[in-house]
Write a structure and sequence with these properties.
The chain is an alpha+beta fold. Strands 2-1-3 form a three-stranded antiparallel β-sheet, with no helix packed on it. The N and C termini lie close together (about 10 Å).
């Protein structure tokens, strides 16, 4: 299971399991999962610097 945590993600329930649809842009996925568009827009042109890691599903 891949987890993702954007800046200030704890405010919006992150980290969350990262499971985008094929071809879905990460910004759209973040917004669809509760991350505010205003937080995304801060990073416009650079990409939101997210921590991403693999987690063991059995724990």
């Amino acid at each position: 299971m891949r987890l993702i945590d954007p800046p200030n993600g704890w405010r919006y329930g992150f980290p969350k399991q990262f499971d985008p649809e094929p071809g879905q842009h990460i910004d759209d996925w973040l917004q669809n999962n509760g991350y505010l568009r205003s937080e995304i827009d801060v990073w416009e042109g650079k990409g939101v610097p997210c921590q991403v890691w693999e987690a063991d599903q059995h724990h």
